[in-house]
Sequence to fold (229 residues):
Amino acid sequence: MGSPDLFHFGTEGGWNGPGFVEENAWIYTLFVPQDPDGLIAAVGRDEFNRRLEEGFAKGYVDLTNEPNLQAPFLFNYSASRGLRRRSPANALIRTIAHRAARVDRRRDEGQLSALYVLWAMGLFEMDGGCAVKPIYDLSSPLFDRIVIHLDSRYYSGKDFVIEAHNNSPANIFIQSARLNGHTLNRAWITHDEVVAGGKLEFEMGPRPNPVWGIRPEDARPLLQTRPQP
Fold:
């Protein structure tokens, strides 16, 4: 169990809280996108999960502004009793994406529009595009079928297709996944895999699959911001 002092969020001051720009201590304590595993290890997994769940339950999480947009996906990195907690992320993203469709997405020069598109496709980039080899976390897509047309001037692939089988308002949890016909046990894919073209398929269901994407060997790699020599 980590020290509670590492999570001394405090919501006093609200947006632009004392000593912070555009958010407060609660929000910025979560904002370690370059090393979420390191943050969780410093705080302690049980305490991290408790605080994150409390943030959603009590409305501390601010999904209207950039420093906290990664919050739902942090469940993909935290663990309880040895299991990856991907289920809350699935449910939250589906709900949030539906609500975001009714929000003015012109805000912040279109960044929230881009975020909505990623969430609706079931994708998110935790490191904000800063990695040498970008990675997308996976969650519950809104649509049954999505086709990304890849510009041939920049990419070798033609299309990247995302299909969610048995998708419905009730079936919001990923049961299993396949990439180009092969079983995908990890809950992330690389940018290189997307731009090469192909197909990502999800099998959806009404209840979480507690064993998908939890193997240590399927954990997301650490952020790499500089090319290796």
User: Anything to note?
Assistant: The first helix runs from residue 25 to 30.
